[in-house]
Design a protein that fits this description.
This protein is α/β, with parallel strands linked by helices. It contains 3 helices and 6 strands.
């Protein structure tokens, strides 16, 4: 069960926390693990968006930089057209709205010649596994906000 109220968090604090064990993104077993206790909290962070991309999974990926250090992590808004949401139209609608808000952030980022955009994000912390090969979109600290539940320009 997820916490209902967002817990204030920072990128700096989140990247210091290590997963209970090393995870591998390409492992079918790791991909089926339930979320750890620290991955069942809803958190709220302030960050600077320094890069935005859409990866092969069609999720909208944000590189998030701490306002107080050089630490970064990845945040992702799921692709609302994913077939996983076929049986949950309310969740599809939620991520469609969040995706629209993410595109507003992307538009502002592009309008300012890709200067960092300050945002407030509510989402769920996640440990991304160690990627094999030449994979982009992985966080240096293997920490992510995935999924981003809401994003707003500050």
């Amino acid at each position: 069960m997820l916490t209902k109220q967002p817990i204030p968090a920072t990128i700096d604090a989140m990247v210091r926390i290590k997963p209970p064990r090393v995870l591998r993104a390409s492992s079918r077993n790791d991909g089926k693990l339930p979320r750890y206790k620290r991955e069942k909290q809803v958190v709220e962070i302030t960050a600077y968006v320094t890069e935005i991309m859409t990866e092969d999974d069609r999720d909208l990926h944000f590189v998030l930089k701490s306002p107080t250090s050089d630490k970064t992590m990845v945040g992702e808004i799921p692709d609302p057209t994913c077939p996983d949401y076929d049986s949950n139209p309310a969740l599809r609608a939620h991520f469609s709205k969040t995706r629209e808000d993410g595109m507003t952030v992307r538009d502002k980022w592009k309008e300012t010649n890709k200067k960092p955009v300050k945002v407030k994000i509510t989402g769920i912390p996640f440990w991304d596994g160690v990627h094999s090969g030449n994979v982009t979109g992985a966080s240096q600290y293997f920490r992510e906000i995935h999924p981003i539940l809401s994003i707003e320009i500050q």
